[in-house]
Amino acid sequence: MSRVTLAQLEAFYWVASLGSVESAAQRLNLSQPTISLRLKALEEEVGLLLFDRVGRGIRLSLDGQALLPNARRILDNVQDFISDAGTSQVRGRIRVGMAEGFAFICLAPILELLHKNYPELQPECVIATSSSIEPDLHDHKLDLAFLVNATERENFTLIPLGAQETGWVAPISWDLPETVSPQDLARLPIICNPQGSINYWQVKSWFAAAGILPARLDTCSSVAMLAHLVSKGSALAIFPSKMVEVGLTAGRVRLLQASPRIEDVPIYAVFRADNQSAALKAFIKTVHQVLAEMDYLHR
């Protein structure tokens, strides 16, 4: 009977993921000789060389590459077992960034469910445009982020959550057709997030498809303020359709059909690949549950 231990699998996984015994030892808060002994014992148990020794370094062998997904799956299952055993395992702070349009609708129910299921977890939330949040995540100032159109980056994991519907929103008092084209809106005041944001790109590309530029394009960093300005009759804007629901009920704004259609934008959960903490998994699990209950995103 094999006597492979979780400690051996953990050493194998982190050496393979981080590329060196030294890095794995730092990650696991162990000595390098301890990591090396665990790797040797694992190789003896499975009867395979899991790493090729190259000079003073090591490289994952073909056998090691084949076994790595199974090791990851076993460690994930153990972590899930611990998390499911009780919420007392999930505690401490977690630094989370959220795209503002997404947070505007979803953050309140997310926090409510999080407090209910994980009372010792303490989220610290940063709300801004995706383009503002993403650098902080890459600089390790955030543990987790929910971003629109996130970019792939080495050593980071992207989990697609679905697509966020967006559309043109206008003050109810403006005399506009039900379906609008770039020619219909080109001379009207428009407001969007600053250059570099997804929102700015949506506005510019929609008009560019017709070969025209909007006559007046103001910018504002806050998505919530875009919605406020539209409700006050100051401008048109593109923002998540779910944000329109309150204004529609109050009879202040209209959600317009657009020709050409404005494409939905994908939302991702993004985090460092080496972060497998119970807190991170609990937060993502909570978001999945809330989004499913709200029917917020298209898949």
Q: What's the layout of helices and strands?
A:
Layout: H1 6-18, H2 21-28, H3 32-46, E1 51-54, E2 57-60, H4 62-85, E3 92-99, H5 100-117, E4 121-128, H6 130-138, E5 144-148, E6 156-164, E7 166-171, E8 179-180, H7 182-185, E9 189-192, H8 198-208, E10 216-219, H9 223-231, E11 237-240, H10 244-250, E12 253-255, E13 257-258, E14 265-272, H11 278-294
Parallel strand pairs: 3-4, 3-5, 8-13, 9-10
Antiparallel strand pairs: 1-2, 5-14, 6-14, 7-11, 7-12
Helix pairs in contact: 1-2, 1-3, 1-4, 2-3, 5-11
Structural overview:
- α1 crosses α3 (32-46), α1 (6-18) crosses α4 and α2 (21-28) crosses α3 (32-46).
- The protein has helices at residues 6-18, 21-28, 32-46, 62-85, 100-117, 130-138, 182-185, 198-208, 223-231, 244-250, 278-294; strands at 51-54, 57-60, 92-99, 121-128, 144-148, 156-164, 166-171, 179-180, 189-192, 216-219, 237-240, 253-255, 257-258, 265-272.
- The strands form five sheets. Strands 4-3-5-14-6 form a five-stranded mixed beta sheet, with helices on both faces. It has a three-stranded antiparallel beta sheet with strand order 11-7-12. A two-stranded antiparallel sheet has the order 1-2.
- The protein has 299 residues and is an alpha/beta fold.
- It has three domains: 6-85, Orthogonal Bundle (Arc Repressor Mutant, subunit A); 89-163 and 265-294, Periplasmic binding protein-like II (D-Maltodextrin-Binding Protein, domain 2, 3-Layer(aba) Sandwich), CATH 3.40.190; 166-258, Periplasmic binding protein-like II (D-Maltodextrin-Binding Protein, domain 2), CATH 3.40.190.
